[in-house]
């Protein structure tokens, strides 16, 4: 069994992808070819966002938005520590300080109550209100932005987060790298009222290309303008009239061509993902030792991962049992970001983010993809049952 099977999807649309790639080979516009414009239009239609800029990766999408907002030294940016490294890396590479805010135990998304405390702690320097990283204890940082992450495919609690941002005059960048295609109150992620959203088309994400790729979404025409400049070395009228520092952040035309074909079956695949998650729930719900994914009623998850919690120190034994039965699993994330070596200088203590720590010890992602069959889900569930006997 595969953890994520990308082959079945490819077999299904291989011919159409080859036709698309042939078109690119024929017209030869490998950089910013017509497929890029076509894809950006389709992504706007799909999400409901006013503007879309495709780019080189999800990480670069995050970095470019933060660059456009002028975020750098002396600035504080809030985010959950229970996420992929790129969320905080994008902040740190610009010289700003990631301020970690613990997650909610059911959704694994940033906790709005903790966020309010963390903002007040940064503004006052008072670590009794909330644990702060060393740079925020030593100097008064300027609270600038929040990056909520839609973890495993499920949108964060934007009804609670956006008013907090507004009250403190903070920009909100939705990290929807795992949640493209998910919805909250019927609205698609990347169009949930944030100032900007970033997503990733890394092959294993819900909508993946065959290499690196990403996209930025915003309703802000001015931001879109600045981002198009940053995406091409800070270009002005043309790319040799550089008016700001940017980067090479474009998506390849080839990747756009592939994504156009993948997007055409994506809605169907999202339904299939939903079905696979329903099977998992059916087959696993009788097991008292595990907690199944909790999807808020407002949300439809894009199901980037199906992650369960296995308590009492049994997680690793279950994973080993599954591995012996040829069933691959993964741990997202074995270490929350506040205790990663790369952020040692922030001087966080493990217990500063207790819920993230607890989740990292008990979480286990099961095999999941839209082409998984009921018998396979059943097989995984049976194996988990046996492992827990
Ligand atoms: C994958 C991911 C990213 C980075 O995307 P890339 O395209 O791999 O650069 C950022 N944030 C989260 C939450 C992710 O899962």
What does this structure look like?
The protein contains 13 helices and 13 strands. The protein has helices spanning 7-27, 34-47, 58-68, 86-93, 112-124, 134-138, 158-167, 221-231, 253-264, 266-284, 315-324, 354-362, 374-388, and strands at residues 51-55, 75-79, 97-100, 142-146, 171-175, 183-184, 187-188, 196-200, 214-218, 290-291, 299-300, 306-310, 363-366. Helix 2 runs parallel beside helix 9, helix 3 packs across helix 8 and helix 11 (315-324) packs across helix 13. The longest helix has 21 residues, at 7-27. The chain is globular and about 65 Å long. The model has no long low-confidence stretch (mean pLDDT 97). Residues 57-59, 83-84, 86-87, 149, 175, 177-178, 200, 202, 212, 214 line the site of pyridoxal-5'-phosphate (PLP).
Globally, the shape reads: globular
Kindly report the spatial arrangement of strands forming the biggest sheet.
1-9-8-5-4-2-3
Specify the helix fraction band: 40-55%
Individual helix count: 13
Distance between the termini: 23 Å
| Helix-strand makeup class | alpha/beta
Detail the poorly predicted runs.
none
Cα-based radius of gyration, to the nearest Å: 21 Å
Beta-strand residue percentage: 5-15%
How do the helices and strands follow one another from N- to C-terminus? HHEHEHEHHEHEEEEEHHHEEEHHEH
Largest sheet, if any?
Answer: 7 strands, mixed
Bound heterogens, unique:
pyridoxal-5'-phosphate
Q: Please report the total strand number as a whole number.
A: 13
Q: Report the average pLDDT across residues.
A: 97
Entry summary:
By secondary structure, the chain is α/β, with parallel strands linked by helices. It contains 13 helices and 13 strands. The protein is globular.
